[in-house]
Amino acid sequence: MDFGTIGAGTIGQAIARHLVAAGHRVVLSNRRGPDALGDTVARLGPLAGAGTVTEAAAAEMVFLAVRWQDIPAALAEVSSWDGRILVDTTNQMTGLTPRDYVDLGSDTGSEFVARHAPGARVVKAFNTLFAQYIEPDPRHGEGRQLLFYAGDDADAKADFRAVAEEIGFAPVDAGSLREGGRLMQVGGLLSALHALKQD
Ligand SMILES: NC(=O)c1ccc[n+]([C@@H]2O[C@H](COP(=O)([O-])OP(=O)(O)OC[C@H]3O[C@@H](n4cnc5c(N)ncnc54)[C@H](OP(=O)(O)O)[C@@H]3O)[C@@H](O)[C@H]2O)c1
Questions:
Q1: Nearest 10 degrees: CA dihedral of 179, 184, 190, 194?
Q2: pLDDT (tens digit per residue) in 8-22
Q3: What is the CA(15)–ligand 1 centre distance, in A?
Q4: Given ligand 1 and candidates 67, 89, 186, which is best to mutate, with the most ligand atoms within 8 Å of its CB?
C-alpha cells in the first residue's frame, strides 16, 4: 500500500516517520508546495517524497493532518477520491484554549471532514493523542500505545488497523464515525486518553 499526507507539520511528519520506518513510501504535501518540504523529506529518508496535495491524495491511504480551519481549502484541492482511504487526524479546535473549540452541534468532526471529501472512506484516528505520544516508537517496555480509531467502512477500518499494528500501535476500534467519532473528539471520553496495552 502507498501513503500520502495532506499536511506535513508535527502530526503529518510523525506519521510519515513511522510509515517510512516500516518500509513504506510516503508522499507528503503542505500548503506552500513541495519545494518547501526539501529538508523535511531529506530527514525522513529516501522512502519519503514531497508532492502537491493532489499527488499525495492519489495514495491508497491518505492522512489528513492540517489545522481545523484549513480543512476545506486542503480538501478542495482533491477532485476525486474514488474510495481511497482518508485518515482524519484533526481536532475541531482553531487554537489551544477551550474557547477555540468548534461546536458542530449534533455533527461530529469526522462527518464534517467526510462531507468535504465525497467518495473517500474516512477513518478517524490519532486525534485523541498528544503529539508527544504519537511521535516516539509506540512500542514501550510496558506495552504498546493504544490508538483509537472509528469509521463506517469495515474494509477501510481493517486496512487502517493492519497499518497501525505494523507501525507498532495497539489499535482499538471505537465504532462508527458518528458514535466512535463523538467519543474520540475533544470533550469525548477517549480524547486525550493515553494508555498502553500489555501484550
Ligand atoms: N499537535 C498535536 O499534538 C496534535 C495531536 C493530535 C491531533 N492533532 C491535529 O492534527 C492536525 C495537524 O496538527 P499539527 O500539529 O500537525 O499542525 P501543524 O504542525 O501546524 O501542521 C499543519 C500542516 O498543515 C499544512 N496545511 C495548511 N493548509 C493546507 C492546505 N490548504 N493544503 C495542504 N496543507 C495545508 C501546513 O502547511 P504549511 O506549513 O505549508 O502551511 C502544515 O504542514 C490538527 O487538526 C490538530 O488538531 C494535533
A1: 150
A2: 999 999 999 999 999
A3: 12
A4: 67
Fold of 3-197: Rossmann fold (3.40.50)
Does 65 sit in the ligand 1 pocket, CB within 6 Å? yes
Cβ of residue 116 lying under 6 Å from some atom of ligand 1:
no
pLDDT of residue 109: 96
The pLDDT of 128-148, averaged and rounded, is 98
> How is residue 92 written as a grid cell?
475541531
Which residue's C-alpha comes closest to atom 1 of ligand 1? Answer: 131
CA-to-CA separations, 75 to 58, 187, 188, 190, in angstroms, rounded: 12, 25, 25, 26
Could you tell me the distance, in angstroms and rounded to a whole number, from the CA of residue 142 to the centre of ligand 1? 30
Strand (E) or helix (H) holding 65 = none
Calculate Rg over the CA atoms of the chain: 15
The predicted structure's pLDDT at residue 52: 98
Determine the Cα–Cα distance for residues 163 and 158; give it in Å rounded to an integer.
9
Residue 182 C-alpha cell reads as 463523538
